[in-house]
Amino acid sequence: MKKQIYCFIGLPASGKGTQAMLFAEERGLAHISIGDLVRDELKNEEGDKGVRETIQSLYNAGTPVTDEIIFMLLEKRLAELDNGVVLDNFPFNKAQSDFLLQYSVTHDWEEPKIIYIKIDPESAVKRISSRRICPNCKSIYFEGDTCNKCGTKLITRTDDNEETVRKRIQNYLPNIEEVVSIFQSKKLVFEVDGEPSIDEVKKQVEKI
Questions:
Q1: Closest among 103, 74, 91 to 181, alpha carbons compared
Q2: Residue-number span of the structural domain to which 66 is assigned
Q3: pLDDT tens, per residue, the chain with 208 residues
Q4: What angle do CA 8, 122, 66 make, to 5 degrees?
């Protein structure tokens, strides 16, 4: 049986990360967030020093990590897996989509399936503006003052203000539309209404 690739995409605060994690846990699949993948490489003292230094310099300059580095890290991680994978917020552009499609052919995996958790942009603004994060374990909350997991006082990220959020959404939408367009022609896109509760969205994902 071929290994499968499931990709959860959507606007910020659409719940794609939560749903990707739940989906992976229930199926015993690896859950890979590209942000975590890059951060793990930064901490990996046994990895390529040159790659770590390049990532750090990009971070310091406030520049996104290049697709080439992401592809290298992702390919290395995928090669370690015995089962399929659930990707969180990937692919995010045409180059990433092409990489994933080519990888599935070259390594004889199933074609990637895109699960698009779709919410109204105004819902994303409202959710992010009320979002609180635990600085210790990184858990996300939309109500309360302390983390239920570790008891740490929750904080609001400096970039979680309405003006910044609206700009992020404007940048996100063209990328999402491009990815959806690429995979829709192959009938590999499954849209899910991300407006209801986590449990309701999960039921929709299970149904499709």
A1: 91
A2: 5-207
A3: 899 999 999 998 899 999 999 999 999 999 999 888 888 888 877 777 888 888 888 777 767 788 999 999 999 999 999 889 999 999 999 999 999 999 999 999 999 999 999 999 999 998 888 888 888 887 788 778 899 889 999 998 776 778 888 888 888 899 999 999 999 999 999 999 999 999 999 999 999 9
A4: 45
CATH of residue 169's domain is 3.40.50.300
Structure tokens of 10?
Answer: 């959507």
Q: Into how many domains does the chain fold?
A: 1
Question: Residue 152 and residue 150: Cα distance in Å, rounded?
Answer: 6
**Widest distance between CA atoms in the chain:** 48
Check whether the bond before 91 is cis (ω within 30° of 0). yes
Backbone CA torsion sign across 45, 48, 49, 55: negative
- Alpha helices by DSSP H, listed for 107-186, are 121-129, 162-184
Residue type (1 letter), 67: D
Nearest Cα to 4, choosing from 117, 113, 114? Answer: 113
- 196, 121 in Cβ contact below 8 A? no
φ and ψ of 93, to 5 deg: -160, 180
User: Are 156 and 131 in contact, with CB atoms under 8 Å apart?
Assistant: yes
Instruction: Enter the tokens of residue 74.
Output: 């992702």
